[in-house]
Amino acid sequence: MTETADAEFAPIEARIRENVGLQGFMRLVGGELSELSRGTCTIAIDRRPELLQQHGFFHGGVTAFLVDNATTIAAATSRGQAALTAEYKLNLLSPAVGERLICRARVIKPGRQVSVVAADVFCVNDGVEKHTATALASIAMLSEDVATKTKSPAA
After folding, report:
1. Helices (H), ranges, the chain
2. How does DSSP assign 107-119, residue by residue?
3. What single-letter DSSP state applies at residue 59?
4. What's the gap between Cα 121 and its chain centre?
5. CB count, 10 Å around CB of 93?
6. What is the reported pTM?
7. 90-101 pLDDT, tens per residue?
8. Contacts with 58 (C-beta within 8 Å, 6 or more apart), sequence order
């Protein structure tokens, strides 16, 4: 990316990071917006007993949350436009056993009304990543007037 493109993305990134900081659920689960660039988003969550199911794996709901949030944020980075999840298909590939979950989302097709975003979730155990889930999401891109009313322009 050129310096001009980076400069154009800086205010979008700042607004998204600010809005993600307002998400109570993100704070509740301890989510960390670790990487953000145009068309991509990475969110990670450290293992805590409250996030596990009865067998000691990360709960599938944690994986679903990561996919939901990361795909929406990635879509919002394309144009700095507010976004909401319309739907997603989540495939749980294997139990999420480890110290940390990482979700990497990337925009496949940006759109004015709907963007298509893919995400992969990995569980880190002893420094090794294991692919535990994959998803494809349709993200509704909101108009500016709707975003203003919701007071949460990105994610």
Report:
1. 3-21, 24-29, 60-79, 144-150
2. EEE--SSEEEEEE
3. P
4. 10
5. 12
6. 0.90
7. 999 999 999 999
8. 45, 47, 51, 52, 96, 97, 98, 101, 123, 132
